[in-house]
Amino acid sequence: MSKFRIMTFDGGGVRSVFTAVLLKRLNKLFPQLFDMVHMFAGTSAGSFIALGLAFGLTLDELVNLYAKNAQFIFTPERLGLFTPKYNNENLKMVLNQVFPSNVKLKDLNRYVLVPSFRVIGPNQIPWRPVFFNNFPDSPTRDEPVIDAALASSAAPAYFPSHNTFIDGGVIANNPGLAAVTFAVDQETGRQSLDDIYLLSVGTGYVGHKITADTTEWGSSQWVFYPTPQEPLLKILFEGVEESNRLFSAQLLGERHFRLNPPLIRAVPLDSYRDIPSLIKQAARANIEDAAKWIRENWF
Hints:
Layout: E1 4-9, H1 16-29, E2 39-42, H2 45-55, H3 59-67, H4 70-73, H5 89-98, E3 111-118, E4 128-133, H6 145-152, E5 165-167, H7 169-172, H8 176-184, E6 196-201, H9 219-224, H10 231-252, E7 256-259, H11 275-284, H12 288-297
Parallel strand pairs: 1-2, 1-6, 2-3, 6-7
Antiparallel strand pairs: 3-4, 3-5
Helix pairs in contact: 1-3, 1-11, 2-6, 8-10
């Protein structure tokens, strides 16, 4: 049996620094861990990790990508209800410092998958999910890496859509199931499901709930209710995460592991002031079960 190893990263804005520190700790335990990955997949800010690792960035560079640039990315803040909270010019500048503008998905040395959603279809084609990837014969192989990252991270209300695309978190904030599907598809990866090993890494689990009676809620409550903040958006993103975890585990059994340690509290995707706390929490998080699974299944 030939193993096909997939590593995936959830979306979560600044919380992706939590993911990056977890990965750094795992790499210290297993220096060959990332060398053996056949496919990286990431959504939204997780796409920066997936594309960065496939491009050859170090984990220190990925941690610094968030720690040093998040405040710059999430300024200036707009106050209007009729524009995105931020423009994406600062984010573009940061990504251009990391990825040369001429680097395309096909130039990366690993398979990658980056979910997004096209809201405006060409030639009257309805809106639909789009999974940027560099598998052979993929129609997105020639897509610039920066454009794939911007498309996947265009969180509605936070950033403007990019080239008619919005954040992939609306369909696959946990991209594990999508990655498995592309890996086994006979027109893309052509792998046997029995050969797939998936390590899925989240941005920290909080476990939200609404304690109010939602029976008579209208659009304003679902969008603006304060606890949890923006409940409908959280349901869309985090509900997808848990659904994908469940389905991936059912498909792969012991060949799937989900690493998503608890956070002490919820962290909004643009809360750059929480980055030092996220780094400390990731440094203390229990990764023993993940290390055990890697030791027994990855190599």
